[in-house]
Amino acid sequence: MEQFSLLLIFWYGILHAFAPDHLTAIADFSIGKNKSKTVLITVLFAFGHGVSLLVFAKILQNFNVSAEILGYGDIISAAVIFGMGIYLLFLVSTNRINIKKHQHDGKEHIHIFFGKDHTHKKTDVTSALTIGTLMGIGGVRGMLVTLGAIENSAVDIFMVFAFTFGVSIIFIGFGAFILYVNKNLLNTKKNITRIFTGVGAISVMVGLNMLLS
């Protein structure tokens, strides 16, 4: 029964990862980034999911806390996704997304940066971890319902690992797709404008839908 529980939690993690808000958030934070930062963002997003799942599941199981309170985590993450979409559309409309090409050892490198200066910031990485943690709160209720369908089980580290592993497979796979877009499609100003506009518009729609639902 224990192995079946872990398998079910693993499968729930895979299904949970396909939620539009999760994939949108990853796209928002990793679009236009280099390979190492894209991988780091997707891994930290999944890690934040797993940590918050363990912490808040324990809180729900050991204290008389209404699951509805955890809905505020969904509201916060929805507001951030909506805000990120507005921000990306603002960058596009004000022509603040720039491209810089140069060569290293005979190979052309493309850097995408925001604003007038080409700088490297770590705020998007820490933000991805924070949003992944907040969105993990929403997954707690679904996981506890799944556990209740199996048996009266307590959430332990193995279940969290199974869930995080399932989530990570989808997140990293989607991160690989974003990496492909960053490397092969974001190579001209025209493509940058189109793709960032599309990502921004989707982010606004997903965030707004979450806030209104």
Helices and strands, with pairings:
Blueprint: H1 2-17, H2 20-30, H3 35-62, H4 71-93, E1 97-104, E2 107-114, H5 123-150, H6 157-184, H7 189-212
Antiparallel strand pairs: 1-2
Helix pairs in contact: 1-5, 1-6, 2-4, 2-5, 2-6, 2-7, 3-5, 3-6, 4-5, 4-7
Kindly summarize this structure in a few lines:
With 213 residues, this protein is mainly alpha-helical.
What does this structure look like?
By secondary structure, the chain is mainly α. It has one domain. It is 74% helix and 8% strand. It has helices at 2-17, 20-30, 35-62, 71-93, 123-150, 157-184, 189-212; strands spanning 97-104, 107-114. Helix 2 (20-30) runs antiparallel to helix 7.
Strand order of the largest sheet: 1-2
Distance separating the two termini: 36 Å
Helix content: over 70%
Which structural category fits the helices and strands? mainly alpha
Mean pLDDT: 78
Following the backbone from N to C, one meets helices and strands in this order, namely HHHHEEHHH
Number of helical regions: 7
Low-confidence stretches: none
Compute the CA-based radius of gyration. 19 Å
Overall tally of structural domains: 1
Approximately how much beta-strand content do the residues carry? 5-15%
Give the total of beta strands. 2
Tell me about the biggest sheet? 2 strands, antiparallel
State the shape: globular
How would you describe this structure in keywords?
mainly alpha, globular, 213 residues, 7 helices, two-stranded antiparallel sheet
